[in-house]
Design a protein that fits this description.
Elements: H1 9-18, H2 21-29, H3 33-39, H4 46-74, H5 78-93, H6 101-129, H7 132-163, H8 179-185, H9 202-206, H10 214-246, H11 250-269, H12 271-277, H13 280-300, H14 304-332, H15 338-367, H16 369-389, H17 391-398
Helix pairs in contact: 2-7, 3-4, 4-6, 4-15, 5-6, 6-15, 7-11, 7-12, 7-14, 10-11, 10-13, 10-14, 10-15, 10-16, 11-14, 13-14, 13-16, 14-15, 15-16
Length: 404
Amino acid sequence: MKQPNPKSLSTKATLLAASTFNVVAPAIIVSALPAIEKYFAEVPNAPLLARFVLTLPSLFIVIGSPIAGIIVDRWGRKFLLIASTALFALAGSSGFFLDSLPAILCGRSLLGLAIAGTAVSSTTLIGDYYTGATRAHFMGLQGGAMALAGVLFLMIGGYLTDLNWRLPFLSHLLALLLLPMMVMFISESCRSKSEFLEPNEQKTELGNLAPTPVRLLAFVYGTAFLSQIAFFVIAVQLPFHLKQLLNSSALEIAFSLALLNIVRIFVSIAYGKIKQRLAFISILSLIFALMGIGYGIIGFAGNYSLILLGSAITGMAVALVLPNFNLWVSAEVPDAIRGRALGWLTTLLSLGQFLSPICSQPLSQQVGLAMTFSGIGGLLGLLALTLVGMRQQVMAFIADKNFS
């Protein structure tokens, strides 16, 4: 039987679709959070638990991603991708049928394990199939596909929430449509098979026996962790900020987050060109600067238009996060440990997402949501300036590629 060609449109479309699950899962239900909190108002700690409906999958992505990395490096990518997709559909849709907040949270836990499997296997396959500028371009397309899915499912989720807060959970079942595509169009990659590589890259990629860049990975993982603590503040808290400030409808809340993803689409697609002009660390500084500006605007905004502006600027930053970190790790680690390295990256990203409400909720209760956004924005701006000012010292530190 002829193996699928990684350069074919069908394979690329399947990989891009599979890469969107970690964005689709929160986008589907984020507009329903206030309704879920209201429905379960008598449950102890309902405000925090309602937010965990959004972020609890991230904790189980943390748990599942290192395991997924071991599986894809030792036993292959394709089976894990297919099995995780099936679990995503079943676990994600369980919230429609369950009438207990703890039971819904259990379903969201399984959903997190599914996302860990799809995220690690799909990104590892992208790292396997493509190299050099082609890989950078595809990582940008991956970010654009995730943003587009975020826009579509934010709007779908907002519309369905206005009908009934349970309906958005059923949207997870759409993942089942991808299973036949994965069977037909995804091949079990092997980096020792040079037919997938560009001719001028075969020697470099097949000779990639460099040691693990421990310090670089520590720096990347640490900044990725911080970026997600900061980013998920907007995902978790903006719906409540809009409700308190402007009494916005679910559809208005969804559009404010959808705009972030609309901007993200275009900037993500342009990532390959941005990377040709800027180093990884320069893009990282830009990420924190843009996110700081966006949060500052949201914090001081007194109307819907300014909040949309802040959301759009934040979207520019978020668009660069995953392509930059994924490409940085894929380009620097040896082929034999790519799955594990990306698995740990997914773990730190998801751990930041999970801890975000734990960090921001007490702060918002003390100083209010507006001050929370503006304060975090100021800290992000300071971090961006620090990276710019200490660029040479940081580069010297992460240049050590010896084993620890």
